[in-house]
Amino acid sequence: MEPEVSDLAIPTDHEVFQIKPGKRTGLPVMIGVHSTALGPAIGGLRIKTYDDSAAGIADVLRLSQAMTLKAAAIDNGSGGGKTVVPLPKDFMLTPQIKEAILLDVADHVHELGGIYHVAPDVGTGPLDIDVIRRRTPFAGGYSKEAGGAGGTTYGTYIGLDTAIRAAVRRVLNTTSMKGARVSIVGLGGIGTLIARDYAAEGAVLTVSDIDLSRRDFAEEIGAKWVTPEDALLADCDVLAPCALGGLLTHCKVPTLSAKIICGAANNQLATDDVADALKARGIVYVPDFIANAGGLMYASGIEFHHRSEAGSETHTREGIARNVDIVLSEAERSVLSTHSIAIDLALARLDAASKPV
Ligand SMILES: NC(=O)c1ccc[n+]([C@@H]2O[C@H](COP(=O)([O-])OP(=O)(O)OC[C@H]3O[C@@H](n4cnc5c(N)ncnc54)[C@H](O)[C@@H]3O)[C@@H](O)[C@H]2O)c1
Fold it and tell me: What is the pLDDT of residue 353?
């Protein structure tokens, strides 16, 4: 039997959670504003099919809470939110319907009066945010043509690159990726960018994707193409999960051969305590919400904090390198996992913000 929403381990401490039908499409627009303690909530708009409404609700609630932790961990001056428009199975998403959904979302975001800024996520990109901005200024990650950061992919890529290099420096005691054995699961926007860079620098790459057309790119950069399962288990210095979450499970941990795990995918740990099992095996796990925070940092740096592109890149790289150093060095001195330390870092910042001055 499918679990009820109430049975799922989902957070319920949100400032706002609403489900309202869009007036143009009738489709439900689910918005979660988890926290504005550190500033307006920022979080992506996910438009995708779900098995049922409960799965969409669980996504909004969990992902908006995760955005609060991510924003707090990087001290971004923003909180966490998320929007989901769940599509029924076999739904035909035409360009006209998509535009109507985006305008519905824009209306609902605008009604919240600025406590929440919507951004790109699964099923949406910078051009979609341009459409939303026709109705509301409370939207980020818009196109460069419209004066924005051009989405979040570039920022996430430079942030992940910085996180990997910081971990490599600490664990392997080198500043170069030359000769480093890197295994990448997922050759999408982010995986492709880091693979190309590291191949050019002389890293030894193993790559994988469920999309077999990505094999041509692997050949182009001289990387070894394997199945996603083999990439996960590869004997390597750095394993970079850049596809979906949930791939690090208690069953998998004893079979891993990586020295460092550092990737862009959200929610890589199937459960939080997998981080303890990784630590017990001596595998250095860079928490996902630290490693993939660059997109949020870089885009909000340009659009929200009005930094130049170069200024936002420097701020992003310095901030992520600092956070990785703090988390890994504290984990070396502590019995706690890197994941617990990163959460404590975020909670301490939230706690300080909620105390009266
Ligand atoms: N792009 C961003 O700004 C950003 C920010 C934070 C987190 N993330 C997360 O990082 C990950 C990578 O982001 P992206 O922008 O490159 O996404 P993407 O959609 O461009 O690429 C994901 C790739 O993973 C592949 N894939 C899917 N399932 C797979 C599987 N089981 N095994 C192997 N490959 C699989 C897909 O075919 C695709 O090529 C995603 O999980 C995303 O949610 C991205």
Answer: 78
